[in-house]
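This week, look over our next protein:
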Amino acid sequence: MLYEVYTGDVNAHTPAPTLRALLGRTELRLALAVRDEDLPTGALDAPIRWVHSSDLADPTPFLSEGLALLTTGTQFTTAGEDPEPYEAYVARLVVRGVVALGFGTEVVRAGIPAPLARACADARLPLFEVPYRTPFIAVARANAEAIAAQDYARRSWSLAAQRSIALAALRPDGLDESIAELSRQLGAWVGLFDGGGGLAVEHPPGSLGTGVPAAVADEARRVLRRGARAASTLRADEAPYTLQTLGRGGHLRGVIAVAGDLDAEARVVVTSVVAMVGLALEQGRDLARARVQLRGALVQLLRAGRVGEARRVARELWGGLPPAPVHIAWTDAAASRRESLVTGLDAIAEQHRGAVIHGRTEDGIVLIVGAGAGAGAGAGAGAGAGAGADDPLPAVAALAREHDLRIGVSDAVAYEQLAAGLEQARIARERGAGTGLARFGDAARDGVLALVDAEAARAIARSRLAPLLERDATAGSTLIATLRTWLEQDGSNERTAQELGIHRHTVRAHVALAARLLGRDLSGFAARADLWTDLRALH
């Protein structure tokens, strides 16, 4: 059994309706006629669903599994000491699922027939003597009383368990406490899988060893994919499990899994927990959605330049806006749809209260971080040396890497420059590499050309320089190399000749030829800058 059986005070133990319990009723004066060692383990503790009496030679058509059968032995009056009728009779009872046989003595014959005792011992079927002074109806009534007492105890336990779980749900961490209390009441492992099929809570922690059997996790994900409310059972690693979905059909919030077999009253308790946890998850989801919308509205106020209003809202709800100047961070709309990412940002904002504000908008997630807090964070990795303990950016960078995405971060700006900071964050994200944080300052150090689409710029440059490329390819000339060196030497023929190891007149001739082929006058700064841009983009 997974749990103790309790009466109304949930303390006094109630004996289960078993042969051991019947033998323990001294007023019945029953006696076991087969040795314990000749019986299967637990045979005396198998539940007896009912007690029936019959002297038919084959009563099995009128019996069901789990019964104790009482007989006076009338069917054996002509059998004598021949073992075959007894063995056939006992074999039929065992096949039918009879759990014990009671023989009423001194009615038809004195004592239990020896062949019957040997047949029961060989078949490992419990056999007990019912003395003449004990009516069969008394044995049946005693078992019925035990069944009724157990049913009452189980119902009382169920009500007490539901009360305990309801009280646990009122504690600060009500969801986790409800699962823990359910586990304690059932005396079994209980796991809560989230809407994605991941194990979110388990009690007792680690009691299943290295982890939940893969079959249980797979079944949780399977019922979640179906999207309909459902219950299922399975066996994994030789143990039974019961699973029940949480939430409405089409809006499932998770799955509760319980190890072990559950009776009707235990299933009632699990169902009540499913209802409470499902409601808590639904309410929590609605509250989280409201918070997301409120944070998004706050960011929109700031983008609209209504800093005073945003400051009042933030002060009431989140302890105020981060002090200016601030860094603006941004990632795209695809990332903003990841609920686990938003949950992680919520945790960071709570941990660094007043130092970071974030909100989800139509085009992505915007974070506002105090520049004083974020000054110590490193470049793209987001965990630079000297980062302060109150700096939320390393945690943001770790969360970004965990979700395999990149977040752009602006230079420090005033709230009135939020639009410019947001644009910097977009550029930093688009131009950055890898995952984690990408800073605008890193992109700006590479110059304006680094922000140009490399492939498009290279294609345009190749087209504009085509006459020179063709001439170098067909005539073996070095016009491209000469022009690059000439521009690097500020248009000095002397220094270019020295750099390339050729005569200055050759340099002058190559530059003139290139100007003719390109149709450009290279004597002025603008033309030379234009040519330098083409050459940079080409390579």
